[in-house]
Write a structure and sequence with these properties.
Blueprint: H1 11-17, E1 26-31, H2 39-52, E2 57-62, H3 69-73, H4 81-85, H5 91-94, E3 96-98, E4 103-106, H6 114-117, H7 120-132, E5 139-144, H8 150-157, E6 161-166, H9 170-186, E7 192-199, H10 202-220, E8 225-231, H11 234-241, H12 246-249, H13 254-266
Parallel strand pairs: 1-5, 1-6, 2-4, 2-5, 6-7, 7-8
Antiparallel strand pairs: 3-4
Helix pairs in contact: 2-13, 8-9, 9-10
């Protein structure tokens, strides 16, 4: 496959795909520049929090080749994204309800290696199908793969809002900046927001965000918004090990309260400062 085949979309292409029609669900992409920042856990927990707030939610596992939403939840999905990409099923038919969380899931396939062989036309067809089911949901959450591969960039640019997950580690901030820089190149005035995960405190998380925001202002000419801060919480690890939802297993935990606050803010509800 030639490099020319992996072109990123123009601003006009993205505007046409990411409709702002209020009759269509909002597409939120959860991205990160590197693995190990808790991106998938956050996407799952955010989907649950939004469903608990009464929204119709679809969690789309868009981590092509290393999908693990189903693993985190202990699922054995009957259908997955691989069947959609192969043309065996429509995207709508591959979606399955996840009753414990009250939201729908389109599972990926871990270790499928799909990213290395994915054709641009196949990805465009999947994105078109995804936009066609928007009217069924209030929110569609895409759990993207980590990094800046061409397919990740294309899915990121197709979203209405991009949440870039970062931690206090310097390497995470550097990689988060790379995601924001490429998004600025792919999309004119993107709605990009930073989610600081695993913060030692709210104050520390704000300092982390401010460091990233200064770099973006200096080199990109604009700073992203702060979507929220999730404090480091050992109960998160316990929930992941037991393949269960944090808001069910540990609803009173600090991280649960933080995710619920982020969900309410994204849904346009009034949120009091932590």
């Amino acid at each position: 496959m030639t490099a020319a085949a992996h072109t990123t979309p123009s601003a006009n292409d993205v505007a046409a795909a990411a409709s702002t029609d209020p009759r269509h669900g909002r597409i939120l992409a959860v991205a990160s520049g590197k693995g190990g920042v808790g991106k998938t856990w956050f996407a799952v927990t955010l989907a649950h929090a939004m469903a608990m707030a009464g929204r119709r939610v679809l969690l789309f596992d868009g981590d092509l080749g290393l999908a693990n939403v189903d693993i985190q939840l202990g699922l054995l999905p009957r259908h997955d994204l691989a069947a959609v990409m192969a043309g065996r099923l429509s995207l709508a038919d591959a979606v399955a309800p996840y009753a414990p969380g009250g939201f729908d899931i389109l599972a990926g396939r871990s270790g499928s290696g799909s990213l290395s062989t994915l054709q641009p036309a196949t990805l465009e067809r999947v994105l078109k199908d995804l936009h066609e089911v928007r009217s069924r949901y209030d929110v569609i959450l895409i759990d993207l793969g980590a990094g800046v591969e061409w397919a990740v960039r294309r899915m990121t640019a197709s979203a209405d809002t991009v949440l870039v997950v970062a931690t206090e580690e310097p390497t995470s901030l550097t990689d988060a900046y790379a995601v924001l820089k490429l998004l600025s190149a792919d999309r004119e005035e993107p709605d990009a927001r930073v989610l600081v995960n695993q913060a030692m405190s709210q104050t520390g998380g704000k300092r982390t965000f401010e460091t990233l925001a200064r770099a973006c202002t200096t080199f990109l000419g604009r700073a992203p918004e702060l979507a929220g801060i999730i404090r480091r919480d050992d109960l998160v690890r316990q929930a992941i090990r037991r393949q269960s939802l944090l808001l069910v297993r540990h609803p009173g935990s600090a991280a649960a309260a933080d995710v619920e606050r982020v969900a309410r803010a994204l849904l346009g509800e009034r949120v009091l400062p932590p």
